[in-house]
Amino acid sequence: MKQYRVVILPEAEDQLYELYTYIADRADEKIAADFIERIKEFCDQLEVLPRRGTRIDELLPGGRVVSYRKRTQIIFRVLEDKDLVEINGVFHGGQDWQGRLGQR
After folding, report:
1. What residues are paired with 5 via a beta bridge?
2. CB 34 within 8 A of CB 16
3. What is the extent of the structural domain holding 94?
4. How does DSSP classify residue 46?
5. Which of 29, 30, 41, 56 could make an SS bond with 63 (beta carbons 3.0 to 4.6 A apart)?
6. How would you write the pLDDT of the chain (104 residues) with one tens digit per residue?
7. pTM for this structure?
8. In the chain, how many domains are there?
């Protein structure tokens, strides 16, 4: 089975940090760190099954969106020619991920 390398782009890393801060401020740093780690582990699973989720070509050419625990949307692209999955965004709760992608 073909394996892909998963890379979290800087903007998505920033969004993960924002989510960490949001959770840590309202709950606990350990809870926040654990949640972020589980999201990253979920993203790493895209290395073997990258064609999950719903296509969102109109917002991001070649893009897909998949839910993590029904509250977090992970936006990514599969770059076949590079055997690469790029994580483009991580949006939690009611964030307008469609609007933010459309502004890019």
Report:
1. 84
2. no
3. 5-102
4. G
5. 56
6. 789 999 999 999 999 999 999 999 999 999 999 999 999 999 999 999 899 999 999 888 899 999 999 899 999 999 989 999 999 999 987 766 666 665 55
7. 0.89
8. 1
